[in-house]
Amino acid sequence: MKIGLGLAAVGRPGYINLGRAADLPAERSVEVMRSRAHELLDQAYAGGVRYFDVARSYGLAEEFLGQWLWGRPEVDDVTVGSKWGYTYTAGWRIDADVHEVKDHSVATFERQLGETREQLGDRLGIYQIHSVTPDSPALHDVELHARLADLAAQGVVIGLSTSGPEQAAAIRAALKVKLFRSVQATWNLLEPSAGPALAEAHDAGCVVIVKEALANGRLAVGEHAPGDAAALAAVLAQPWATVVLSGAATGEQLASNLRARELDADPVRWRYLAMPAAAYWQERSRLPWG
Question: From CA 212, how far away is CA 161, in angstroms rounded?
Fold first, then answer.
């Protein structure tokens, strides 16, 4: 289950990956994006991918994945992970002022869990709080933890994703809660700061899922970029990584991403690319939705 497929780039018309204008057709209707998502899911499954990642804030990604699963009853060997805590607000527009709104309250959890269940039913395997930071109330909300424990008792793995320059602190705070059994974090050749904390999460028995391995395309394009396969291979080489997500938006990208499994990468070769975490996240915050 080493490479997974995330549907953030194809669950909604706007996203922050570089080169997106060329990745997707000018018409990005629901049907066009549904078709692209299903094509990628077919290709990924045929290529051995068995982990699929969605979120409530990824537009219609949960719906697209759920429909794909219901149409293929023979697909019974995959793990589905989703996330709650952001509400999609762009209204299927690329030029929206606000694309998603964050709220980690119990009320939002209850509402979004119902919405996720409506789309994914009992196929939901991992449910994560979306984008936890060290000051997130979700780390200390006793009522929320009780609701999450109830969901865990139903067989769903409870986890969290992290973002921002203090990912390591958020991960370590979550490990103290003794509730979270999965961690999804950004780790790539530009932003490796969460590595030691992710190793601790792995040693504590958590599923470790790596997102943004290509730094929203910054490691895939450009004269000095290592390229997508090499950048992904560098993440696959980390002994603590359980799943490394491909965020491919085209079949060609996915095929190239999957070639990372054939490479014997030496991450040390690219260590000069690492940036200070604060600088990385500041640069990421300036990427336009396109």
Answer: 12
CATH T-level topology, domain 3-285? TIM Barrel (3.20.20)
Answer for the pair 91, 60: CB distance below 8 angstroms, yes or no: no
Encode pLDDT of 225-247 as tens digits. 899 999 999 999 999 999 999 99
Q: What are the residue ranges spanned by the domains of the chain? A: 3-285
Q: Which pTM was predicted?
A: 0.96
